[in-house]
Amino acid sequence: MSTNEIPGLQTFFDAYVTAALWSSDGPDDEPLDKNYDENDLSDDCKRAMLADCTEFLTRFSALIGKRFGQAGHDFWLTRNGHGCGFWETRDWDPIVGATLTLSCQHRGVYLYVGGDDDEIHCG
Question: In the chain, where are the structural domains located?
Answer without folding.
Answer: 15-29+41-122
